Every structure is written in C-alpha cells, then in structure tokens.
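Protein in question kept underneath.
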Amino acid sequence: MGFTSDVGRRDLIKRSAALGLITVPAMSVLSACASGGDDDTKKVDKGKKSAKNPLAVNESAALDVVIFDGGFGQQYAKDAEAEYAAAFPKTKGKVKHAATQKIQTVLQPRFNGGTPPDLVDNSGAEQMDMGTLVGKNQLTDLTPLLDAPSLDDPNKTVRETLRPGVVEMGQFDGKPVWILYYAYTVYGVWYSKTNLAKLDVEYPETWDDMLKVCEKAKKKGIAGWTYPGKFPYYLPFSLYPFIAKIGGREVLDAIDNLEPNAWKHPAVKAAFEAYYELYRKGYILKGTPGLTHIESQTAWNQGKALFIPNGSWVENEAKKTTPDDFRMAVSAPSGLDKSDKMPFGTLWASGGEPFIVPKAAKNPEGGMELLRIMLGEKSTKNFIKQVSSLSSLNGGTDGLDLPPGLASAQQALTKAGKNVVNPRLQDWYVTLQKQQIGVGALGEMMAGRMTPAETVKKCQKFADDTAKDDAVKKYKHV
C-alpha cells in the first residue's frame, strides 16, 4: 500500500483508525454490486492470441484503470500504461487513467451499475473488503495472467517470476487467484546497525542473547524495544514468525483456519512468555503503550530503543526523523532455542497494494495485460526507484542502488529462502486480527495488564467466537 500519506499509508495490515470504517460500508457496496451482474455482452471482443499477445488482448479496445493515489502515488502506473499503449498502438488515447484516495466512494456507483474499471488498485482507507468481493463473486480469476509467459522471459510464466507467498495471498477458496499484490512487504525486527555497534553487539539470533543485549542497553539508559502501543497489531509482524520458528508453519495455519485450541499450542505459549519477559524485565521503552506508530518510530530513530517490530514501509515513512548514519536494517526474529522447528532467518513477508480485475470489467484481458507489463523488469525497477519499496517480482531489485533498509529487507528475504511464512489472519479476518487479538489481547499483555496464560485464553476465545459467527465467511489453507 501507499504508506507516506496520512490517508493512504496503511493497507489491510497497517491501517488502524480506518478499520472500523471499512467493513460495514464495503459490505453495503458489495451487496449492491451483487445485483450489478457480469453481463458478458458488455465485454469487448478478444484479440488474436500470439507470442506477443498471450492473453489475447483486443489491440484497439479502450482500457479503464483506477489507481489508489496514496503514498506510492500514481506515476508508476501511468508509466506502465504508456508501455501498454506502446505495445498496442491502436489504444493510444484510449487508456483512461483515474486516481483517487476514495476507492469505495468513487467505484460504488460503477460497481452497482455493472460498469467497473478494467483494473483497480484497491487500496487506502476506503479499500473495498477483499473477502466480501470474493464471496460476492465480483472478481475475475487471474489464473490466465499467472500462467501466461512473463514479459521478459517467455520460458517462465508470470507465476514463476513472483516472490514467495504472492500467489497464495490472492487465493481465498481453492485454486483461483482473485488478487495480485504488486508491492512486497518484509516484516520483522527493525534496528539500527549504528546503534548496535555503539553497544558493541550484533543482532541476537537466540532469545537468551536478545535478553542479554536488552540488559546491556538498559544499563546505558536505552530501552530494548518499543512498538506502536496504540496499534499493537504491529507486534505480530515479529511475533507470528517467531511462533512459526518455534513450532513450525503449521501452527500459524491452524490459527488462520480457526481450529479449536490452535492458540493453545506450546509454541504460542512459549512465544508469549518470551515477549512478556521484555515487559517484566523493564526492556520496553517507558510510555510505549501510549505511542502511535509515528511516535514509536521517532523514539526508535532517536536511539531511545534498539528494536521495533515493523514492515519495510518504515524506511520511507520514518525518513524525516532517521539520522543519516542510522544504517537501518531488518532481521528475522531471534530463535527461542535449539528445539525450534524452523531455522534462524524465518520471517514473514507478503504482498501489498492489491490489484483486482472486476468480474464485470469490459476489457479484463487488457487489465491483466497491464499487470503483466507492470511485473516486467522495466516497470518494476521504475516502481522501486520511485517509491522505495520492493515489488512482487522476484529479483526486481537487480542492479539497483537500494537504500539501507530496503537492501537489508532484500538480504533478509534471500537468507530466508523457502522459510517465508504468510499468516492470513490479517486479511481473512480483519477485526479478529487487529481489534481483538492485537488491541484486546497482545496490547494488554505487553502493557502488563494480562499474563501470557490469560492472553492465550483470550485469543482462543476471540478465534472461537469468530468461528461460530455465521455472518463471517470462513477461509482455510488448502
């Protein structure tokens, strides 16, 4: 998601205040959408399929694109649209581009009338609810795009060029892929190499070493950790992969699947107890429970705390307060002990900035072709340079001079290899993840108002209540 503007910086994982505004309006929009239908007679004729046109795009048909105008801006999309027009000269002047921060408000009448755009960057505070879009059958399956030859190497499909977890994030039920996440976020424990060097320590790979580093920092008047206490659903950015490292990725899958007693797994208990120890030993920056994301990041930039759980958008977001010699970096969570099921380097990384092709789009092949162009090396590098974010194209950073944090994120991904986890709770069950588990449980535990055992019990109750709620559509890993 675009993350530099006040309105648009947060995506489904990152937004806070917008959370309560998303679900109800989006449901009403999409309920109305369901009556709009997907009249195939409104669609343009397909073009002739060829090596240069594998999706059979109508080479003279108009293309209608709506982009979320947030922190990523819209120029990267305009540049890709120019590439589209160059590839299909007869579309010159027919590529309609619109940008807005009010996706829902702008698109509601069009969805209701059965005339949605051909491609939508469904992001921002007025993002349409993904689960409802899928549940109401409002999206085009993007499998043809994923199985098409990639723009730069016809011997590789688009699917084969994507980073780990991107395809899976677009799936809700079975094999169809409804969403293509264009940006790519690396979550983990962020720190300053400069500030660790001042303490003559390196990033700790075990929890015992993490506590030792925090104790050494405490003696110097520096906190070990801080986090956005007002938005404690940031904690899972490092806590969830920590749980997976301890007990295996199947623990997170069981949690995502709302399985009975999933939160009572020993790995969850161990992870909660470890994090609670940070509070108990006084390693959390004083006042952290009352800090916003900006305030906690600023305190971290000022050297008041060593570590912060965050995502790779933080480098761009915090750049105004980041010292020139900060040497920002990210690491996967420290391990618990030698009994961990997954190796050090296991981290959470997943797609962001969701693009969709509406089911009732007139030119769905054109929408998918524009995405294919965007996932080419030229457009990808243009995106990375413009917005300082990784993209979903694997290797899209090759040959680029990346800023420290982004370079570190790329290195962390390389180190993780196949050990990348992608918890789905945050996009399958937004209220459960953010308001209940994040604010109502983890936030209380890290503020010292709830013990780890009580937190486990509370998380399980929240999950059980969601599982029993017939009004909430359920999804499972396949």
